[in-house]
Amino acid sequence: MAVRLRIERLAIEYDSEILVYPMQQHVDDFHPLKSIINSCLHLQASFVEYSLVHVCIDMNNVADILPNCCLDGDLGVHSMA
Predict the structure, then answer these.
(1) Which residues are 51's β-sheet partners?
(2) Nearest-angstrom CA–CA distance, 15 and 56
(3) Most confident of 8-12, 15-19, 68-72, 77-81
(4) What is the mean pLDDT of residues 48-77?
(5) What does pTM read for this prediction?
């Protein structure tokens, strides 16, 4: 989607080390995710600036609050304290 929208700079924060670290380091041809990693690296070349970092699960849980409020909450103004 980011490529289709012609986004030039992309920053991804993800809470799964299993997916982040293989993208940042060379993996051998026998790695079970090698074809997916190659596809991602090909897409990565489409961006002027690109970063992929691992974040702890707690940081990702905070990001999950917003869509859950939209799906489960009442309409109106919400505050998160």
Answers:
(1) 11
(2) 6
(3) 8-12
(4) 71
(5) 0.58
